[in-house]
Structures are given as C-alpha cells and as structure tokens.
C-alpha cells in the first residue's frame, strides 16, 4: 500500500500544511481545495433544498438561547447530518475528518467533532459582525468554510470580512466567496461578518469543537 495515499483527493501533505499555517497565523486560505465538479454538485444540492423548502432561517445562540434574528443574520441553512448526507457531502465530511486529525497532530487542540451547515444567502442577505463562539462557551475552536460560488466578482458583494485585531475595527481583510475556496481560522481569534450579497451565495460552514 502506498504511504500517504490521499483518501479523499487532497494529499495528506496539504492537510498537514493547512494545520501548520493555522498554528502559525490562525488563518488559512486555500483556493481550489476541491475539484470544480464536486463544488458544483454541492451547490446544486443546496439550490434543490432551497426549491424544496429544505432550508430554514438561521439563528443565533444555542439551545434555550436560540433565536432567529434577522437583524443579525438573514441566511438560510440546513445542518449537515452524517446519517443522511449525500455522497458529495460525505466526501467533504471525510476530508474534514482527515483535516481534524491533522490539526490535532499539530495544534493539540483536542478537537473532538465537526458540526456544520449548508448556508444560502439570498440576494441582500448578510451576517453582522460576530465571533463563532457563543457567549460563555468556547466549544467551537476552529471555523472551516467552503465556498460554492463559481465566478464570484467584487461587484457581487458577500465578502467575508475578517478582523485580525478585535480591538481595531479599521483593520480588516475581505475575502470573496469564490467556489472551491476554503477558509479556516481559530474561532475565538477572528471577529468577522458577511457583507450583503447581491447574488445568491452558497457555502458550507462548520466548526471543529471540543467536548461539551
Ligand atoms: C458563520 C459565518 C461566514 C461566511 O456562518 O458563522 O460567519 O463567509 N459565515 O459564510
Ligand atoms: Mn461566523
């Protein structure tokens, strides 16, 4: 058997690189992380869910604290469930499992599981500035976002705006949600927001968590 054989199409070395970069800078961006056909498949499944009423208004907070609050975010989501995942979703989940192990080997974060959702931002939708850790809990340690939008341009809006210094609102980095782009960052270190999208915007967003 070949050592280091890629199980899911992304060489183990690339995953180790992502983990290293995450350890060094807290933020990693990888374009063309997955082949265009797989991205298109994931996107078309998202559009089918939209058409069949399979998406719900996203909320903020957990459990009792959950609120659908469209002043803060106006995207629509479906949580991923490994039991009912499509083959394309399962492929991506498999890759994330390898990434989780690679990050644990490098950062010793004790990442335990992944939770994530497909997200669709209709034209005009946004997500105001926030941290991916709910008040009083730090279970989400690493955020991983995969964008599903081919040919996204500046004029389409919908940028992910990251603030590397929580105390300095004037310093930020904008990223377009280009299909195949993977963005991975330490959840507690980067406040961020999604600027209003002028086109429908699709992504799979998730978090590696530690045990409750
Ligand atoms: C989120 C989020 C960013 C994006 O869902 O928590 O911040 O670019 N998403 O989709
Ligand atoms: Mn977020």
Please outline the helices and strands.
Elements lengths: L11 H14 L1 E4 L5 H16 L4 E2 L18 E4 L7 H21 L5 E9 L5 E4 L9 E8 L12 E3 L10 E3 L6 E5 L5 E3 L6 E9 L3
Antiparallel strand pairs: 1-9, 2-3, 3-4, 4-11, 5-10, 6-9, 6-11, 7-8, 7-10
Helix pairs in contact: 1-3
Bound molecules: N-oxalylglycine (OGA) and manganese (II) ion.
Order of helices and strands: HEHEEHEEEEEEEE
Tally of DSSP helical segments: 3
Bound molecules: N-oxalylglycine, manganese (II) ion
Largest sheet: 7 strands, antiparallel
Q: Give the spatial strand order of the biggest sheet.
A: 1-9-6-11-4-3-2
Alpha carbon gap, first and last residue: 38 Å
Overall pLDDT metric: 90
- For this structure, the quaternary state is single chain
**Unreliably modeled segments:** 1-6
Structural Rg: 16 Å
Write down how many β-strands occur, each being a DSSP E stretch of 2 or more residues.
11
Shape assignment? globular
Residues in β-strands, percent: 25-35%
SS class: alpha+beta
Can I get a quick summary?
Helices cover 24% and strands 25% of the residues.
Structure, described:
By secondary structure, this protein is an alpha+beta fold. It has helices at about 10-25, 35-50, 85-105, and strands spanning about 25-30, 55, 75-80, 115-120, 125-130, 140-145, 160, 175, 180-185, 190-195, 200-210. The chain has three helices and eleven strands. It has a seven-stranded antiparallel β-sheet with strand order 1-9-6-11-4-3-2. Strands 5-10-7-8 form a four-stranded antiparallel β-sheet, with no helix packed on it. The longest helix is centred in the middle third of the chain and has 21 residues, at about 85-105. The N and C termini lie far apart (about 40 Å). Bound molecules: N-oxalylglycine (OGA) and manganese (II) ion. N-oxalylglycine binds near residues 192 and 205. N-oxalylglycine binds next to β10 and β11.
